[in-house]
Amino acid sequence: MEATTRPEIPPGTLYMLILKTLARAGSMHGYGIAQSIQQTSENVLQVEEGSLYPALQRMLVKGWVEGEWRQSENNRRARYYRLTRQGRAQLARELREFNHVYAAITRVIEAV
Question: Which CATH number do you get for residue 105?
Answer without folding.
Answer: 1.10.10.10
